[in-house]
Description:
- By secondary structure, this protein is an alpha/beta fold.
- It has helices at 18-30, 44-49, 84-94; strands spanning 12-15, 38-41, 72-77, 95-103.
Amino acid sequence: MAMAVPSHGQIDTIEFSPLHAQHANNTFLALDLYPFPKVHVGPALEILRDPHGPFASPPGVGEGMRDEEQGYDFVFIDANKDQIHEYFQEAIRLTRRGGVIVVDNAIRNGR
């Protein structure tokens, strides 16, 4: 997916594990995408909710973009299943109108 995003786009990923973050950075480097994607390391909900952090407002806010252009076009949630609702609430806040939110295993085993 990262290879399809234009260079003016923005890709962010949050990895709890520094090892997984390093793997993500190595993958982006191998695909000649580095440093384009931003890998944030730590507990995702803490990072997402930090009022002074990188997700305090949706992408494009304060950059002269129209309201409907502000926010992520696509959000993929693959996180702690016990907190999916909380991640989803943050995704709604950060996704632009018309954007897509995909939740991993959302319909697993028919539930």
